[in-house]
Write a structure and sequence with these properties.
mainly alpha, about 60% helix
Length: about 150
C-alpha cells in the first residue's frame, strides 16, 4: 500500500516538476541512439537499463536514470528512496529530493538503516551529481564509477 501511495504521488508530480522546476534542456536522445554507444560506455549502459525495465528516456529527467546506472540502484520504492539518500549524501539538494526523503522516511521507517547506509555511501564518493552526463555518455562506465569512487547502493 505504501509503495502504491508513493507511485501515485510520483506520477502526479512528475509533469509539473519537469515543466516548472527542471531548468535543464531535454537530451532529445532515443533508446536506439543510447544502445549504439560502445558496450562499455555510460550511454550503452543507460540504454540497457531503460530497455531492461521497459522505460523510455523522460525529457529533462535523464540524469535520474543515469544515477540508477552509476549507483546500481534498483527500481523498487525503497531502492528509489535509498538512491535519494545517496544523492543527499553526495551533496545534491532539491525540493523534489527532500520531498522523496521526507515522505519515504515516514512511510518506510523499517528501512532507515538501509537509508543511512546509502547516505554514508554518497558522502564517501566524490561529488558527481552535478556533472553534465550527456557529455559523458561515450565514457566508460567503470572509469566514471572508479574516478568518483561511486559504490553500489
Amino acid at each position: 500500500m505504501r509503495a502504491l501511495l508513493l507511485e501515485i504521488i510520483y506520477e502526479w508530480s512528475k509533469i509539473p516538476y519537469q515543466k516548472w522546476f527542471k531548468k535543464e534542456e531535454s537530451w532529445d536522445i532515443s533508446m536506439t541512439q543510447l544502445l549504439n554507444y560502445p558496450p562499455s560506455s555510460l550511454g550503452f549502459h543507460l540504454g540497457s537499463f531503460l530497455l531492461q525495465h521497459d522505460f523510455t528516456p523522460q525529457p529533462k529527467l535523464e540524469n535520474h536514470d543515469v544515477f540508477h546506472v552509476l549507483t546500481k540502484a534498483g527500481i523498487t520504492v525503497p531502492e528509489e528512496i535509498s538512491m535519494q539518500y545517496f544523492l543527499l549524501g553526495n551533496g545534491k539538494r532539491s525540493m523534489y529530493l527532500m520531498g522523496v526523503i521526507c515522505i519515504g522516511t515516514l512511510l518506510y521507517p523499517d528501512k532507515l538503516a538501509k537509508f543511512r547506509a546509502a547516505f554514508r555511501k554518497g558522502r564517501s564518493a566524490y561529488t558527481f551529481h552535478q556533472l553534465d552526463f550527456k557529455k559523458l555518455l561515450n565514457q566508460s562506465l567503470i572509469t566514471i564509477r572508479t574516478t568518483f569512487l561511486i559504490p553500489s547502493i
